[in-house]
Write a structure and sequence with these properties.
The complex is a heterotrimer of chains A (about 260), B (about 300) and C (about 300).
Chain A: E1 4-13, E2 16-22, E3 25-26, E4 31-35, H1 42-49, E5 57-62, E6 65-66, H2 72-77, E7 80-82, H3 95-102, H4 116-121, H5 124-144, H6 160-172, E8 178-182, H7 190-205, E9 209-213, H8 217-223, E10 226-231, E11 234-239, H9 241-245, H10 248-255
Parallel strand pairs in A: 4-9, 4-10, 7-8, 8-9
Antiparallel strand pairs in A: 1-2, 1-3, 1-5, 5-6, 10-11
Chain B: H1 2-28, H2 36-52, H3 58-80, H4 85-105, H5 107-110, E1 123-124, E2 127-128, H6 134-157, H7 159-169, H8 171-176, H9 181-207, H10 217-230, H11 235-254, H12 263-280, H13 293-305
Antiparallel strand pairs in B: 1-2
Helix pairs in contact in B: 1-6, 1-9, 1-10, 1-11, 2-3, 2-4, 2-9, 3-9, 10-11, 10-12
Chain C: H1 8-39, H2 46-64, H3 72-101, H4 110-131, E1 147-149, E2 152-154, H5 156-178, H6 180-190, H7 192-197, H8 202-227, H9 234-249, H10 254-275, H11 283-296
Antiparallel strand pairs in C: 1-2
């Protein structure tokens, strides 16, 4: 069974159908690509899965459970994290703080009671243990992305490529099983893109399943195990990179239908 | 003269408790609330009614007043805080009007336009506080101000403060980080209302009387000015702002020229403060203090390991 | 027809009263909604623009004529004063936007809101300093003897409110939907950056929006003044209620503001007579409506639910 799948997911805005009855599947431990021309409904699909928007019809299942109606924060808590197309860092906070926020709700130390009020009643020491856990884990993720030297910089002062990395680090700090990346290579130069590919593989090797929207075909074809193609809100193809590259519908969607 | 200065200091402290609460709402979390005076009014009237008609002990009445104000905060917060910030501003504006109307019209409890007089002073270890003796009052209030200040400080320096900062910066990103935004917002709004209720309760007990038109929209604006003038999101700055605003509004009386300066001048001043500060110095005279949670934590952990 | 045990003729009377009140709310709500559509913020000073416009109309009116004398000259003087009030309000609206809001367009959301509240307080208190807190009577330029039909009656002023309200709303709707400037306005509210790229002068469109909204508020102010009185805080409560009307209809939506205004006027009138809400608490009706609409359909009646774009 797939780790996550949508069942006839449909999203209409007024009369416009942004996502039309899409069945989208993500297998555990895979890297799945979601591609399609601009306005094909890729980000809308992401938003509907991650609880920032809700489908008009259809359902989303994660680990076999229906998560369609869950709000964004609960989706994150059950193990789905995401980044945004137009980077949404906490710009006036430091690099370190951004990652700490990512661990906000995972701060519970294993030794502590689940109930925060009980923790508090037991005295400040426990809260400090919690903070220690947040601290150490944040360091770990900063290190993973070689962001430690920038830890006290404001997020807004980082170079663009670094901001993208920080956003991924922040998402990973929530300890997701499934990570959605919305155009992670946008605005990166070829060398940065190259590094990003290595990073995404490294993330998968940590046991995190990755789904990404991307326009950089070289990246998608190189690292994805399976690819799903959307056009005008509909799924027009899915398969391995090889299959997609030779799919007639996909070529038409990207290059336009030839008249002869 | 000294008596008058003590009186001003007492007002500064009472208002500070209220403005610290409002700063939590407006400054730290970035929600615009226009009814802090209404929360004070609720607190003041709760204390007045509970102590005169209910013969309740002051300390219990104080706590109840805070709780009633907080409950009202929850009631108004739950429907509005899920939505964009502007709705809260309007809802709180309307709420202030309602509180005023209810106080004016609920004659059987609030005595309508007459207000309530003869509220007994609080007593502690056999000593009864009266507005005649200002120094004991001052110490009592100072204690509560310090407690409020410390409570907010602990809250802000913990991960709650960090979450509030994230919410203020980007709500969508914060919710994508697993933060339950509505819970934090309602929590903050309620805490702010509680502070307002406490301040109102002190207000009633100190003046030993309450009148319905005291806690109007202009008072909410005055408290808002205290927060904006000092610096949004900085408790110390809020207290400084409160000192400045209270002195500014009492200055005509202090200099004995209150008969020349019309009351409207004060309010025009508040208006100018809001516009001027927003355009030229939005961070307030003292400014926001950006806590570095990363450094703070590092120090603490080093301390623990030692 | 007896609805809730109220005779039909009384029902018609309340309907007339509710509609006139609603028409006034609609006129004010339009200003809120247009500004919100373009700048995405509440112009808290809108009520004070209304008040100052009304005062300027009032002063000119009494300078030009003695309304108690009646006659066609008074009617001309009234028309001139109304126009003058609209112009003054429009200028005021544009000026306030330039001074207090424009520098804050890129600032965090809280900043323009606080600035608007500041402007509102300054204007309200300046007015009470200059004109006194005592309310002033605004005499009708015509004989306001009620016209009876059956047991119900309607005053000429109520007729005028309905007619003027209708004309203003229809012409605004036509202007926004059909004219070039109206299209530019809609484009700007849809997406400022794109509108600018298309060669639309965004600053002029914003000024135009403030001018139209403020002029409509002045009309509403004069109509209120004749039914009630002129006083420095007259814009405050009317403004608050009109804003609620805009939210009810769907803020940012022009038709929504009209519908919301009428609906609120009817609710307030019938809330008192049918549900029996005491007069002293009449003002709480609007606020309760706000809370209910925010709970049930926060985007307003005429707007489909939409979430913030990510």
């Amino acid at each position: 069974m797939p780790l996550l799948y949508t069942k006839n997911l449909r999203r209409e805005f007024g009369g416009v159908i942004a996502v039309s009855d899409v069945n989208f599947e993500v297998m555990k431990n895979s890297i799945t690509g979601l591609i399609g021309p601009n306005g094909a409904g890729k980000t809308t699909l992401f938003n509907n899965i991650t609880g920032l928007d809700f489908p008009t019809k259809g359902n989303v299942f994660f680990k076999g459970e229906d998560i369609t109606e869950l709000p964004a924060y609960k989706i994150t808590r059950i193990g789905i994290a995401r980044t945004f197309q137009n980077i949404r860092l906490f710009r006036e906070m430091t690099v370190f703080e951004n990652v700490m926020i990512g661990r906000h709700f995972r701060g519970n130390h294993p030794k502590l009671s689940r109930n925060r009020l009980v923790n508090f009643a037991l005295g400040m020491v426990n809260l400090k243990m919690e903070e220690k856990d947040i601290y150490e884990n944040s360091i770990k993720w900063l290190d993973f992305f070689n962001l430690l030297p920038f830890r006290d910089e404001y997020a807004k002062n980082l170079p663009y490529g670094r901001q993208r990395e920080l956003e991924i680090a922040r998402a990973l700090a929530t300890e997701p099983d499934l990570l959605f990346l919305d155009e992670p290579a946008a605005g990166m130069n070829p060398q940065e893109t190259e590094e990003l590919m290595a990073t995404i593989r490294k993330i998968r090797d940590l046991g995190v399943t990755v789904v990404l929207i991307e326009h950089d075909m070289k990246l998608v074809m190189n690292i994805c195990d399976t690819i799903t193609v959307l056009n005008y809100g509909q799924k027009i193809a899915e398969g391995t990179p090889g299959q997609i590259q030779n799919n007639k519908d996909v070529i038409e969607a990207y290059l336009g239908k030839s008249d002869d | 003269m000294l008596d008058f200065i003590l009186l001003i200091v007492i007002y500064i402290i009472i208002y500070s408790i209220s403005s610290l609460g409002l700063n939590l709402i407006v400054g730290y979390t970035g929600m615009l609330s226009l009814c802090q005076a209404a929360f004070m009014g609720i607190g003041a009237y709760s204390t007045a009614v509970l102590m005169t008609a209910g013969h309740m002990d002051f300390w219990l009445a104080l706590l109840s007043s805070g709780a009633i104000a907080a409950l009202c905060g929850i009631l108004i917060g739950i429907p509005t805080l899920r939505l964009r910030g502007d709705y809260l501003a309007i809802a709180t504006l309307g709420f202030g009007e309602i509180v005023k109307n209810v106080i004016l019209n609920w004659d059987s409890v609030t005595k309508g336009p007459m207000g309530i007089n003869g509220i007994p002073g609080p007593s502690l270890f056999g000593y009864t506080f009266t507005s005649m003796e200002k120094l004991p009052w001052l110490f009592l209030l100072l204690f509560f101000l310090a407690a409020t200040y410390m409570l907010i400080r602990v809250m802000i320096r913990s991960r709650v403060g960090r979450a509030l900062e994230a919410i203020r910066e980007d709500e969508i990103a914060a919710s994508a980080m697993g933060i339950n935004i509505a819970k934090y917002k309602v929590g903050v709004f309620t805490t702010g209302a509680f502070c307002g209720g406490l301040a109102g309760s002190f207000f009633a007990a100190y003046s030993q009387s309450v009148a319905p038109l005291t806690f109007d929209f202009m008072m909410s604006i005055m408290i808002l000015c205290m927060v904006v003038l000092g610096g949004l999101g900085n408790s110390f700055a809020t207290v400084i702002g409160t000192v400045l605003i209270v002195i500014a509004s009492e200055l005509p009386r202090l200099l004995g020229i209150s008969h020349i300066i019309p009351a409207q001048m004060n309010q025009i001043l508040f208006g100018f403060i809001l516009v001027f500060m927003m355009i030229y110095r939005p961070q307030g005279i003292i400014g926001r203090i950006k806590l570095n949670y990363g450094k703070m934590m590092k120090d603490e952990i080093l301390h623990m390991e030692r | 027809m007896d609805l809730f045990n109220i005779p039909a003729n009384e029902l018609i009377q309340h309907l007339i009263n509710g509609l006139t009140l609603g028409a006034i709310y609609s006129l004010i709500a339009l200003g809120y909604t247009m500004v919100y559509g373009i700048l995405k913020f509440i112009n808290f000073a809108h009520g004070e623009i209304l008040m100052l416009g009304t005062y300027s109309g009032y002063f000119l009116y009494y300078m030009l004529c003695d309304p108690t004398k009646g006659g066609s000259y008074v009617i001309i003087a009234f028309a001139v004063s109304l126009l003058f009030a609209m112009i003054i309000s429009a200028i005021l609206g544009i000026t306030i936007e330039r001074i207090a809001y424009k520098p804050l367009r890129k600032a965090p959301r809280l900043a323009p809101l606080l600035s608007a509240i500041g402007v509102s307080i300054i204007l309200m208190n300046l007015a009470s300093l200059m004109f006194g807190t005592k309310s002033k009577k605004f005499d009708y330029p015509f004989d306001n003897t009620p016209i009876h039909f059956g047991d119900a009656s309607i005053t000429p002023n109520q007729i005028m409110i309905l007619v003027v309200g209708l004309i203003m709303m229809v012409s605004l709707k036509l202007f926004v939907d059909r004219s070039r400037l109206g299209k530019a306005m809609r484009a700007t509210s849809e997406n400022q950056a794109v509108a600018a790229l298309m060669g639309i002068n965004v600053n002029s469109i914003i000024s135009l929006t403030f001018a139209i909204g403020s002029a409509l508020a002045a009309v509403a102010g004069i109509l209120i003044a004749m039914e009630f009185k002129v006083y420095p805080t007259m814009g405050q409560l009317a403004g608050l209620k009109a804003f609620i009307a805009a939210v009810v209809g769907g803020i940012g939506n022009i038709t929504g503001a009209m519908v919301g205004g009428i609906l609120l006027g009817l609710l307030e009138t019938f809330g008192v007579v049918i549900i029996g809400i005491p007069q002293g608490l009449k003002d709480t009706i609007a606020f309760s409506v706000l809370i209910i609409i925010l709970l049930v359909k926060p985007s307003g009646l005429l707007i489909k639910n939409r979430r913030e774009k990510v």
